[in-house]
Specification:
With about 375 residues, the chain is an alpha/beta fold. The protein is about 50% helix and about 15% strand. The protein has helices at about 5-15, 25-35, 65-70, 80-90, 110-120, 135-140, 190-215, 220-225, 235-240, 270-275, 275-305, 310-315, 325-350, 355-375, and strands at about 1-5, 45-50, 50-60, 60, 75-80, 95-105, 105-110, 125-135, 145-150, 155-160, 230-235, 245. Strands 2, 3, 6, 8, 9, 10, 11 and 12 form an 8-stranded mixed β-sheet that branches. A hairpin with a 2-residue loop joins strand 2 (about 45-50) and strand 3. Helix 11 packs antiparallel against helix 12 and helix 13 packs antiparallel against helix 14 (about 355-375).
């Protein structure tokens, strides 16, 4: 049962109906990647900068990791991940506020209401920032934050409603016990459709009730003004009370013919550090991590190929691990292999009674010299 923006839901439903599956081993690996294997590793979707925590909620929302949502739905975040990240941020003494960074078309209904309850129980100030899209289940999560913000005027929000796509196959006949006709409604009949819609209406009431509670409005307001199942751009959503504000662009355009050519004050490093300490720390930490990854990649390839000269030069001059550098390492590795092979051949030719030993030794030395000249090893 999906709580998703209509087009995204339809596309994902087609993937589900195609019967694509993965092995148990692949599912175990997926669970491990998403931190749902029972390990004590920190949350992959939680980051902390200074006293602020950010929880990244991206892609299709599901109760457990789902490779179809991950690869065919534009990404995947699980409800259990969100709850774990909330608990971790709430328990941290250093965290003073929490941001839900959302870009999601929605997701499955299973696990949604438990996650909504987890957000409601957070005692620290919360805000939700929606980028690109925050629809259906994702909007329901965002609505629970103290403040709901869109990153720009074109951000899409809403799609509030419950949808179920059912397929009718004339070759399949479904029968239910006499006293349980609603167990498997026949949607090819008017009564069957009525029964399914009644069930969807019950879910809709609970779904809308949570959104109304989060936004501090009535259920009637949500049903009548919040798009009636459609999506709205952020500028319209503000007018209807669906979100609180739209972030203003940080840059000001100044035309050459302007009488006054005032522009925004240039943000240098010292100003950023002094006035936006948390952002400064976040950018600094990101840079440190990227540099660590760059150096590690060079060292790994250098050790494998034996070409530490190229590695040291690349690290020193700030080079990324380009295809050219990789090719240089590969050539060095192959030359190293050829060198070892020639040395072994030379040793074998000198074995025995020593006949022809001087000639073999000379040949071996020439081979070594030639390989050294053609290789970066020892250069």
């Amino acid at each position: 049962m999906w709580l998703m923006e209509t087009e995204a839901g339809r596309s994902l439903e087609q993937v589900y109906s195609s019967g694509i599956t993965i092995t148990d081993e692949q599912q175990t690996q997926l669970n491990a990647r998403f931190g749902s294997d029972g390990s004590d590793q920190g949350s992959r979707i939680l980051s902390v900068a200074g006293s602020s925590a950010e929880i990244s909620i991206q892609g299709v929302l599901t109760n457990t990791p789902d490779f179809r949502a991950l690869f065919f739905g534009g990404g995947n975040t699980t409800y259990s991940e969100i709850v774990s990240a909330l608990l971790e941020a709430e328990a941290s003494d250093s965290v003073k506020d929490i941001t839900l960074a959302i870009d999601s078309p929605g997701g499955n209904i299973n696990g949604l209401f438990a996650t909504i309850e987890a957000i409601q129980q957070v005692t620290k100030p919360t805000r939700a920032v929606i980028s690109n899209v925050g629809a259906s289940a994702a909007f329901a999560l965002a609505s629970q934050a103290d403040t709901l913000i869109a990153s720009n005027h074109a951000t899409l929000v809403g799609s509030i409603g419950v949808v179920s796509q059912l397929f009718v196959d004339e070759k399949i006949v479904t029968l239910t016990s006499t006293k349980a006709p609603k167990k498997a409604p026949d949607v090819s009949t008017a009564q069957g459709k009525k029964d399914v819609i009644a069930f969807l209406d019950d879910l809709h009431s609970k779904f809308v009730g949570e959104i109304a509670r989060g936004r501090g409005v009535s259920v009637e307001t949500v049903n009548s003004k919040f798009g009636q199942g459609g999506v709205l751009v952020a500028s319209e959503a503000v007018k209807k009370g669906m979100i609180d504000e739209v972030l203003k662009p940080s840059l000001k355009i100044v035309t050459p013919n302007s009488i006054e050519t005032k522009s925004e004050e240039i943000m240098d490093l010292n100003t950023l550090k002094a006035e936006h300490r948390e952002l400064y720390n976040a950018v600094l930490n990101l840079g440190v991590q990227q540099e660590r990854d760059r150096v590690t990649a060079h060292l790994t390839l250098g050790e494998a190929s034996g070409d530490m000269k190229t590695t040291v030069e690349a690290i020193a001059d700030g080079s990324e691990l380009t295809s050219k550098i990789t090719a240089t390492h590969m050539a060095a590795g192959m030359n190293r292999t050829d060198l070892n092979a020639n040395l072994e051949d030379g040793d074998n030719s000198n074995a025995g009674d020593g006949a022809g030993g001087d000639s073999a030794a000379g040949t071996g030395a020439d081979a070594v010299q030639t390989l050294l000249q053609n290789s970066s090893i020892g250069a």
